[in-house]
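Form 7-S
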Amino acid sequence: MKNIISILISALILISCTPSKEELNTKIGNLETKFSQNIKQGFDITTANELLETYASYIKNYSDDNQINEIKLKAGELAMNMKKHALAVNYLEQIYLQVSDFDKMEQVLFFLGNIYENQIFDIESAEKYYTELIEKYPNSKYANDVKITLNNLGKTAEELFEELKLKNDSTQTDSLKENI
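Output:
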């Protein structure tokens, strides 16, 4: 009997500690506004951490909500910008692997490619996500940048510099020929 009462009390405490969906939505809205206002003065790490924790709470407590993928996308983008790449990949790959018809999948693919390229330095995975973005969304706002990125993926700064130098030398030579 004593154990049952302890379990009931523990359950009541847990339930009372979980904020309602409305409370979390309000808190998210307020933090997003505060964060976007403060970004003009620099990255506000305190607000960013609080916002990320609030997203995590929403995701944990309301995973069946119809806006959960939007929240995961926001959490993934924020985590990416905070250089928390493992957390960012976790949220973004949840969308990628579980939701085939997400209306912002091109953004998910772009973020995943970017994280793997620039934070994790896994060129093979970056290429996978970038290539899928180009194949599935050729008219995406990210398409032109991704095509350029794919052409330069894995190249060192020195290699890129040499290619640029050769291209400039070639352009100058062609220009001189036209003037002769």
